[in-house]
Structure formats: structure tokens, C-alpha cells
């Protein structure tokens, strides 16, 4: 508006006020996020090398993870994937197998299913446990970058809307036990990617999508920032002398994504609407069950040390088995044990 021009507005209605509040929180407060290798990449590299991280394996009386009475995913969980951008068939197979391995009992120990067991001990207000059953339900490809190669947090919701309202083979609508996973290829930049996050989860706004759906976004960092989001299969420049590990599936970008996907799925199951399980007093900035164990993959993990891992005959590093493949996935906080744990823990 030009100087001296005054535009009068009618008083906003209650639904309009609620929509504005949600929009403000989404844009300025941030989503529940996950990124690696450490929460603050500006931290002094010397501190990292000597274990100066606040994330550690041991139990702590300072961690107060509480249930805030919101819903958790107690029914059979379905994962619906949106493949945004250009994806290789082999890359999709790796991610599909990880998701399908979560409920599989066929993998040898330590297994992805054993990792998910920590999640299933979390309950809702009725005492019902989070479901052991999680499977891949439907997939939608957006290989023509319908919303461009630069996405904001709000345009991510528009991508999801396009997938659930498509004229041909739309993704199913399942607000109660569905998870919507938006995966972006290595040539797509998402708001705050690399600088602050490798992935985040939230829920869609009915004003944009038409439904309240728990969703997560995870990006392939292979071209943009592998040292940040594909760690430890790529190493940040600010940690001199640290060598990357060999990825178990021969694709550092995808193997890095796997742990972030696991991080987000675990938090979606325990905190789908950001009002269930988290530490701290502010739901706008929740510290969730995967945040508490960031960078920990084995016994003794903390700081720049991943913990005790497994080495394959081919020299690849992993910490759990899927149906046919191996994966490296970060540990999760157990509210029963009050420390980070995983299926490859030496005391199990």
C-alpha cells in the first residue's frame, strides 16, 4: 500500500484466527526437526572430537520425557511415500526394504524390528501401545517437480495435497494411523535443508490439504551437503582427520537418509500431532525420542563417536539387519530404561 493509504478490515472470525495462529507457528516456530551429525553445526570441532556433545548413551536424571495426553499411533501404521524428483530404481528399493523391515520378524539380530521395539513401549492415555505393525501402503511419484526444485515448509504441504487429491491413483486418506513421507531427490532444495535440518515432521493444515495428516520430509543430501546429512558415510569439513565409513548399501546419500527416515517415523509414531511424547515445556520446540539420541548408533556413543558398530566382510559399517539388507540407524530414547538404546547394544 502507498503511504497515506488506509485499508479497513472487518474483525476476523474465530476459524480465521486459528488458521493464522497455525500458519505463524508453522512458519516461524519451526517443525519437529532432525539433522545430523550434531544439533549445532557451529560447535567447536575440538569439543566434538573430545566428546563434548550433550547427546550421550548413559541414563540421565536431567531428561524428563513426558506424555502430554495427545494421540499416538496405536493402530496398524501405514506409510505412504511421495517420491519427489528424479529417483533411481535401486534407491527406492533400499528405502522400501527399510520400511518393510520395521515389522519383519525374518531378519537376523540385531534387527530393524528390534530397533522398533523401543517405540512400541510408548503408550497413549488408555495404556494402548504404539503398533508393532508398520507397512508400506501406497506410493506416488512426482518426477516432473510439479512444485519446483525449491520447496518451502508450506509448499511441502501443497505437494502432499497434490498427491492425496490426484485424479489418478491418489494416496489414500488415513488421518488416524497413516504416515505421509515426502522424499526429495538430490537436486531439490527444501527450506533450511543442510544449514539447519536434514528432515522434519509435522502435520498438514486442513486449510491447505483438507485434512490433518502426520507427515515427514527427508531429503537426499548427496549433492548438497553429504557431510551434514549423510554422516558418518560422509564427513563435515569442520572435523579434520575424520574418515567416512563405508555405507552398507553402496549409496552414501540413501544410507544417510535411512537413519533420518527412521528418526522421523519413530517421532511421528510417538508424537504425530506434536502434543504427545516429548521433553521440555514448550510443544513448539519439542525434544523427542530420537532427538535425545542424535548421533548415537551403538554402545558408548556420544560426541563425535558413533558407538560400537558392526563391520561386514565387505568393509561396510552397519548396526542392524533388515530383511535382506543392512542399515545404520540411530538409537532411540527408552522411557522405560531412561537412556538411549538399540538392538545392537552390547548389554542385550
UniProtKB/TrEMBL annotation:
<dbReference type="GO" id="GO:0048046">
    <property type="term" value="C:apoplast"/>
</dbReference>
<protein>
    <recommendedName>
        <fullName>Protein EXORDIUM-like 3</fullName>
    </recommendedName>
</protein>
<keyword id="KW-0732">Signal</keyword>
<keyword id="KW-0052">Apoplast</keyword>
<dbReference type="Pfam" id="PF04674">
    <property type="entry name" value="Phi_1"/>
</dbReference>
<dbReference type="InterPro" id="IPR006766">
    <property type="entry name" value="EXORDIUM-like"/>
</dbReference>
<keyword id="KW-0964">Secreted</keyword>
<feature type="signal peptide">
    <location>
        <begin position="1"/>
        <end position="34"/>
    </location>
</feature>
<comment type="similarity">
    <text>Belongs to the EXORDIUM family.</text>
</comment>
